[in-house]
Design goal:
By secondary structure, the chain is of the alpha+beta class. Helices cover 44% and strands 21% of the residues. Strands 1-2-3 form a three-stranded antiparallel β-sheet, with helices on one face. The chain is globular, with a radius of gyration of 16 Å.
Length: 91
């Protein structure tokens, strides 16, 4: 699904929602219930959305499948969390 996101300028982006495995859903729900003091995660809708992995990209639909977008996100976050792994001696 294509959406437009942005405050001043609306940019065309591809929104991908992928159903997650039951194990991950349960893990997310447990964590959300544990942190229920936050007003942001009390709604029924919020708990429904925990069942999906949501990705936003500007890569065309024919270029990457949803599975490939998920892999790219996973790699990107691995690099963010472990900068030494990617940059090695450059840092």
């Amino acid at each position: 699904m294509w959406v437009r996101l942005g405050v001043k300028e609306k940019i065309k982006c591809r929104l991908i929602a992928v159903p997650l495995p039951e194990q991950i859903i349960n893990q997310r729900r447990r964590k959300a219930k544990k942190n229920r003091n936050s007003k942001a995660n009390n709604s029924k809708k919020y708990f429904e959305l925990l069942s999906y992995g949501v990705y936003i990209t500007n890569v065309e639909e024919g270029s990457w499948s949803p599975k490939e977008v998920m892999k790219a996100y996973r790699c990107r976050w691995y690099i963010v969390v472990n900068p030494g792994f990617y940059w090695g001696d450059f840092i």
